[in-house]
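USER:
I wish I could look at a protein chain and see how it folds. I am handing you a single protein, as its sequence and its fold in token form. As I understand it, each token names a local backbone shape. I hope you can help me see how the letters and the tokens relate. The protein I mean follows directly.
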Amino acid sequence: EVACNCPSVVCCRCAPTQKALIVRLLKLYAKKRCAAIGDGGNDVAMIQAADVGIGLEGLEGRQASLAADFSLVKFMHVRRLMLWHGRNAYTRTARLSQFVIHRGLIISIIQAVFSALFYFATIAIYSGWLVVGYSTVFTMLPVFSLVLDEDVDAKTAFMYPELYKELQKGRRLCTRTFLTWVFKSIYQGGVIMMLAILMFDDSFLHIISITFTALILTELLMVAFEVQRWHWIMGAAQILSVIFYVSSFYLLPTYFDVAFIFTAEFWWRVIIITLISCLPVTIGKYVQRQLSPPVYVKVGR
């Protein structure tokens, strides 16, 4: 009971099996993830029993570092591993997974609304290379460039350990955040499809051009609005995605009406649809941050 209430536990003069048993008991009764740090061969069992094993290269050899998930040269590097790299890994993974959900769900909502409006006809609004392009060159680079994002710098992360403690609550990736992104996808997908139906002329090809262009712009803007600190690779990913999409007008002429795309009538519809799909979501996020700002925003102030 004493060990379960401690933030850290030091095992000294214990057998390897005893160290591993302590880790297993902490995982069982404390219901927490355990990280084990060791520098010798007698720490291998403990390192392998923990959720995360950290091995130090010391005078006792490299057995612990070879059996661990992370290998460090000095114990002082644990601070940077957890407070900087560990925190970034969690926040980036959470944001990336949410965008992967959003990217897949919004196009599914568009298809569902399209089928519902046309008496549940089994017709795919996007087919062939459009779906392939959407999943790869049109949106992949900006979404995956989020792994370079940083909400705070390393100096701030070391100065305020509370930033790491906040992540232990699991608020960055939980049921609430999942439902929030599901709502965003449903709203944006529904708006894109229904407004396009109201604004199109008499050509099915126009619906495809308007909705798909608005979909790509919405996804790129959503990524841009989520970035905390811009990296040049993020900007390059956005520009390349736009270039790839514009190039598809000529590479895939059967999917687009090129003459209609380069008209003011097309672009004012796309811009209006994109703004209506993005602005309410962005304004809602801004108001929420003003009323209840996250810890990293308070620290930045």
The chain is about 65% helix and 5% strand.
